[in-house]
Amino acid sequence: MTECPLCTQLLSIEKLKCDTCAVEYCGHFHFPALAALNQEEQYLVEMLILHGGNLKEIAKSLKISYPTLKKRLTELANSFQKKQEIQSSTL
User: Fold this and answer.
1) Treating both helix axes as pointing N-terminal to C-terminal, what angle do 39-50 and 66-90 enclose, rounded to 10 degrees?
2) Which H or E run contains 50?
3) What does each of the 91 residues of the chain score in pLDDT, given as a tens digit?
4) pTM
5) Run of H or E residues at 19
6) What distance lies between CA 82 and its chain's CA centroid?
7) Structural domains of the chain ordered from first start
């Protein structure tokens, strides 16, 4: 969850804790831009990494056409850019 379910604005992280030694870090942390992507977008990024960027293999693995994959990648790039802009404006 990276967005507030009430107002849809990006959430911030105020505390990080190690479950092993119980040390806690308090402050104002932000999600990495990749974490702000939705589940479908994150899966597409995983596929890009796992297939070494080979779009034909990704399309085959996802059982979609090459043009459909290219469209999804364009949408992914646009979404990622918007999320980065939003995050940089809140820093």
Assistant:
1) 120
2) helix 39-50
3) 778 899 988 788 899 999 999 999 999 887 787 888 889 999 999 999 999 999 999 999 999 999 999 999 999 999 899 888 877 776 6
4) 0.71
5) none
6) 11
7) 33-90 (1.10.10)
